[in-house]
Amino acid sequence: MKTRKILAAAAAVATAIAGLATASLAEPFDDGQSKTYYEKLTGKKVGFVPLSMGFDLTEGWNAGLQNQAEALGYEVTIRDPNWNTEAGVQAANGLIAEQPDVLILHPLDMQAYNRTVQKAMASGINVIQVNLKSVTNGDVYVGTDWYEMGQKQAQAVVDACGEGSGGNGKIAFVQGMLATPTATISGQGAQDVFDQHPEIEVVATQAADWDASKAQAITSTILKQHPDLCGILGLWDGQDIGTAAAIREAGVQDQVFLVTSGGGNQSAACDNIENGNFDAYYSYDVPGQARDLNSAVKILLQTDPEPGSAPFALYTPLKYITKENMTASSCWTLDELKANGG
């Protein structure tokens, strides 16, 4: 009899504990906003069309996006057009048909995605454009102010080759694909700086189309035509590996100042500053952009604005890196972003 009573009491206690646990699971702690925050994000869908996967920028952003999506219970779907603008537009249209809550675009061409952005917003999808944008605004732009980038890079060349520097003012501009804002808008920013410095002579401006081999060939020709060249303004580290190779082959590393830019990846940026390929580098800080990208996704999913009704931008603060100011934290690795990014 006594044993039966003990078992009954134990069962009652177990039932009470189970009840408490059930109640706890049913009603998570709410500080007044947290419950709504998690509910708004769980189960949502985000589409991402980069210009291509497989290089530091897009892999870094994606690492941050996937980390946050996994933590908050939503899905990020990627469609990779592999540097093909037409394939990118088709990929974006395919995602629009699937009706994600947010569509992230990384347009290779300023004009080609205009109708795609408009179509997505007309379909009720909020649009984020990352680091490159079409002429048409989406809901959010996260990325570089390319006019500011052009101005800062041009000023670095002026400081190295202009009045009071000891240089002769002769410089070259190795462009990328001219349809991208990186080239078009940065080019305007750079020209506006050069116009203020009559001692600067731009002896060559050529487009290497983001191709390192093409940049190497172009630079080699420029150096043969202008053996006394003082400086080169490049626009992307992936391309300017070729520019640096041509300078090295010509044996003029001590004569020609090279400034370039990129996302600040360790191997693409800091290693090339350390080994003397690049004299100066402007980083648009992919880890910071991944954090801004995730913030934009969270804001849109929580507030659910009518597409196009309240556009805003998160321009990236630029980091200037040289051999003299470089530290262990100046650059990042993909392994770090996969572990903690976003």
Account of the protein in words:
Helix 3 packs parallel to helix 12 (334-340). The chain contains 12 helices and 12 strands. The longest helix has 25 residues, at 2-26. The chain has helices at 2-26, 34-41, 56-72, 85-98, 114-122, 146-161, 181-194, 212-225, 237-249, 266-274, 286-303, 334-340; strands at 45-49, 75-78, 102-105, 126-130, 140-143, 170-175, 201-207, 231-234, 257-262, 280-283, 312-315, 319-321. Strands 2-1-3-4-5-11 form a 6-stranded parallel beta sheet, with helices on both faces. The protein is elongated, with a radius of gyration of 26 Å.
Strand order of the largest sheet: 2-1-3-4-5-11
How would you characterize the largest beta sheet?
6 strands, parallel
According to CATH, the homologous superfamily of the largest domain is Response regulator
Category by helix and strand content: alpha/beta
Shape: elongated
The helix content, as a percent range, equals 40-55%
Distance between the termini: 62 Å
Number of helices: 12
- Beta content comes to 15-25%
Here the CATH topology of the largest domain equals Rossmann fold
Domain Periplasmic binding protein: 46-302
Pfam families: Peripla_BP_4
Signal peptide: 1-26
Protein name: Periplasmic binding protein domain-containing protein
